[in-house]
Amino acid sequence: MNKALWLLTASLLLAEPLAAQQGPSEKSPETSSPIQAGKDYHSFANPDEIRVTHLDLDLTADFDARQLKGSVTLSVKREDKDATALVLDTRALDILNVSAEGQPVDYTLGKTDAELGTPLKISLPAGADTVSIQYETSPKASGVQWLSPVQTAGKKHPFLFTQAQATHARSFIPLQDSPKVRVTYEANIQTPESLLAVMSAANTPNTPRDGDYSFSMPQPIPSYLIALAIGDLKFKAMGERTGVYAEPSMLDAAASEFEDTEDMLEATEEKYGPYSWDRYDLLILPPSFPFGGMENPRLSFITPTVIAGDKSLVSLIAHELAHSWSGNTVTNATWRDLWLNEGFTTYLTYRIMEMIYGHDRYKKEAVLGYQDLMADIDALPAKDQILAIDLRGRNADDVFSNIPYEKGALFLREIEQKIGRDNFDAFLTQYFEDFAFQSITTDTFIDYLDKTLLADYPEKLSEARIRTWIFEPGIPKGAPKPESDAFVNIDKTRSAWLDGEISAADIMTGDWTVHEWLYFLNNMPDTLSDTQLKALDDAFALTSTQNNEIAHSWLMIAVKNTYKAAYPRLHNYLVNIGRNKLVKPLYRELAKTKDGKAFAKKAFEQAKPGYHPLTIKANEGFVND
Ligand code: BES
Ligand code: ZN
């Protein structure tokens, strides 16, 4: 993952930390008692008393009203036989009716917390093991984006997609919205006849388009992995178990960009054990999708901004695929434990990329990731540099920095180096098997290490060192430091150019991949002259690069140095891309000067109708006075 800056203000997606608001949830970390491992501080639900195990969804997508309307029937299991109330999470849902076994039952909506939403408390009659709720979503649901036709590639049909991680499933389904609660689900989705619905479930690629679609997810998954998209979608197979859904005009480009997906799937299975989810398909979303990718099981949701034409950004696919093992099969129990999910996945991503594209690319991607990590270590307060982060009283999305991703991966790389790759791979395979379809805490992982690697390699690993990695800020002394020979030359070239020894035209970029470009640009000094920028731009047409990552790095430099020649592209970039990682650092940088802020405000106002609610929330603070 690069562009550390997207994560620097820790309140990544939502504006204000919970602690600053009124709410029933938690006291601030400073004043509260020791953290309770396994307690989900971001859900009102009571799975320890009554646990939801299965959902039956029956929803109609009303594109005119921008609402999902219908019902969910929840199957429950009583964990405490005396419990009489089922508590669910909701956010901005209109609850119309609640019944159990066909009879209306009492329910109350509790006090609304600005971040957590509203608890829904349902009286469960003795013996009842299902509850049905009729409800409608808000047109502004935080986890749903309704796109008008002009916001799609084809411009003719509307589009809808959901994004549930971290705590947004509750904005489109009343449920126990905690990663420690796993459910199976079935769904019936009604859409306009010309559109196709897809879900994070078993999809039927060539199902007739009739506006009536059924899905089944037979493996238990956490709520943040429930996902739905509806649009003018077509399917193209890439391999036996892999394929891509996209709007028709994007389909071929996507299928060829991601044609190595089947190989990635096979290589990962060979290394880390069987793929548990049957098919692995990709869904290409419109550019307003707020993330790079989302690992919705069986169907990863992917930003179109990585279709670069040369497979240079496909580590994103390796990443979302890797989540099928680390994350979807073995899940973090609470958001504090997210590093078990993203750290393991980042480690696996590097390994998959190496298996498919070789050692040189592996080394380069590892260096870029390491640089992102170091930027966060410099910028984040110590408490946010801890893998097992204390999120009490904070928004769950605060955990999303390079720390869980790259620090988590570096920790695993250290273990790998100490005990040897084959041994570590064998450990990971066993770990994925032992915890398959479970949601685990950091403490469970440490207990497991105690019984496995720490027992097997006492002379190579120590629990103290492992605890330092997990519970202390920063990077422990002696940690691995990824290196790449290819980048040594880039450093030399950059210095020679900066020192005036060579001109831009003399820089031999013929065999540079996106990685060389990113390394070259990301390590420029903060200040460059207009002449220098113009020379680079003249030589390499950076302002018009079609690679969105290179464009991002270049535009960051342009903003830092007010290089006006790039501003029309910058405006376009901000208006047409809603991927937060790419736009947020630009807004933040622009907001540092008065003129920059005025420019940002203009772009933001134009872009806003097309941005996802999360992208709006993450960036409006930069443009508003
Ligand atoms: N699960 C995350 C996406 C996510 C992050 C959703 C934060 C909600 C909140 C996904 O697997 C991810 O990590 N995506 C990255 C890509 C990656 C290559 C690091 C992204 O979207 O940039
Ligand atoms: Zn991820």
Automatic annotation (TrEMBL):
<keyword id="KW-0031">Aminopeptidase</keyword>
<keyword id="KW-0479">Metal-binding</keyword>
<feature type="binding site">
    <location>
        <position position="342"/>
    </location>
    <ligand>
        <name>Zn(2+)</name>
    </ligand>
</feature>
<feature type="binding site">
    <location>
        <begin position="290"/>
        <end position="295"/>
    </location>
    <ligand>
        <name>a peptide</name>
    </ligand>
</feature>
<dbReference type="InterPro" id="IPR027268">
    <property type="entry name" value="Peptidase_M4/M1_CTD_sf"/>
</dbReference>
<keyword id="KW-0963">Cytoplasm</keyword>
<feature type="binding site">
    <location>
        <position position="323"/>
    </location>
    <ligand>
        <name>Zn(2+)</name>
    </ligand>
</feature>
<feature type="region of interest" description="Disordered">
    <location>
        <begin position="20"/>
        <end position="40"/>
    </location>
</feature>
<feature type="binding site">
    <location>
        <begin position="163"/>
        <end position="165"/>
    </location>
    <ligand>
        <name>a peptide</name>
    </ligand>
</feature>
<dbReference type="InterPro" id="IPR034015">
    <property type="entry name" value="M1_LTA4H"/>
</dbReference>
<dbReference type="InterPro" id="IPR014782">
    <property type="entry name" value="Peptidase_M1_dom"/>
</dbReference>
<dbReference type="InterPro" id="IPR042097">
    <property type="entry name" value="Aminopeptidase_N-like_N_sf"/>
</dbReference>
<dbReference type="GO" id="GO:0008237">
    <property type="term" value="F:metallopeptidase activity"/>
</dbReference>
<feature type="active site" description="Proton acceptor">
    <location>
        <position position="320"/>
    </location>
</feature>
<keyword id="KW-0378">Hydrolase</keyword>
<dbReference type="InterPro" id="IPR038502">
    <property type="entry name" value="M1_LTA-4_hydro/amino_C_sf"/>
</dbReference>
<dbReference type="GO" id="GO:0006508">
    <property type="term" value="P:proteolysis"/>
</dbReference>
<dbReference type="InterPro" id="IPR016024">
    <property type="entry name" value="ARM-type_fold"/>
</dbReference>
<feature type="signal peptide">
    <location>
        <begin position="1"/>
        <end position="20"/>
    </location>
</feature>
<feature type="binding site">
    <location>
        <position position="319"/>
    </location>
    <ligand>
        <name>Zn(2+)</name>
    </ligand>
</feature>
<dbReference type="GO" id="GO:0016285">
    <property type="term" value="F:alanyl aminopeptidase activity"/>
</dbReference>
<dbReference type="GO" id="GO:0008270">
    <property type="term" value="F:zinc ion binding"/>
</dbReference>
<feature type="binding site">
    <location>
        <begin position="579"/>
        <end position="581"/>
    </location>
    <ligand>
        <name>a peptide</name>
    </ligand>
</feature>
<dbReference type="InterPro" id="IPR001930">
    <property type="entry name" value="Peptidase_M1"/>
</dbReference>
<keyword id="KW-0645">Protease</keyword>
<keyword id="KW-0862">Zinc</keyword>
<dbReference type="Pfam" id="PF09127">
    <property type="entry name" value="Leuk-A4-hydro_C"/>
</dbReference>
<keyword id="KW-0482">Metalloprotease</keyword>
<feature type="domain" description="Peptidase M1 leukotriene A4 hydrolase/aminopeptidase C-terminal">
    <location>
        <begin position="484"/>
        <end position="623"/>
    </location>
</feature>
<comment type="similarity">
    <text>Belongs to the peptidase M1 family.</text>
</comment>
<keyword id="KW-0732">Signal</keyword>
<feature type="compositionally biased region" description="Polar residues">
    <location>
        <begin position="22"/>
        <end position="35"/>
    </location>
</feature>
<dbReference type="GO" id="GO:0005737">
    <property type="term" value="C:cytoplasm"/>
</dbReference>
<dbReference type="InterPro" id="IPR045357">
    <property type="entry name" value="Aminopeptidase_N-like_N"/>
</dbReference>
<dbReference type="Pfam" id="PF17900">
    <property type="entry name" value="Peptidase_M1_N"/>
</dbReference>
<protein>
    <recommendedName>
        <fullName>Aminopeptidase N</fullName>
        <ecNumber>3.4.11.2</ecNumber>
    </recommendedName>
</protein>
<dbReference type="InterPro" id="IPR049980">
    <property type="entry name" value="LTA4H_cat"/>
</dbReference>
<dbReference type="Pfam" id="PF01433">
    <property type="entry name" value="Peptidase_M1"/>
</dbReference>
<dbReference type="InterPro" id="IPR015211">
    <property type="entry name" value="Peptidase_M1_C"/>
</dbReference>
<feature type="active site" description="Proton donor">
    <location>
        <position position="405"/>
    </location>
</feature>
